[in-house]
Amino acid sequence: RSGYGKITWVDGNTYDGYFEEDKFSGFGKYTSDTVIQEGTWKDNKFFEGNEISRTTGKRTAVYKNGKRTNV
Description:
By secondary structure, the chain is mostly beta strands. It has strands spanning 3-8, 14-20, 23-31, 35-42, 45-53, 59-64, 67-70. It is built from no helices and seven strands. A seven-stranded antiparallel β-sheet has the order 1-2-3-4-5-6-7, with no helix packed on it. Strand 4 and strand 5 form a beta hairpin. The radius of gyration is 12 Å and the shape is flat.
């Protein structure tokens, strides 16, 4: 499947965004009990955007070209 959708897993984690051939691809937001990752996804991997701690509300990392940099 391709297009926009939302997945909620049994543990409460969610992905809300775009899919291409059943993979996270394009803009999306993944939310777990500890982090939020919002930005661009490519082949199920977080490719570019911000990671925010759900505990502090602060940005903990930046992803660019699939590489994570702590802030």
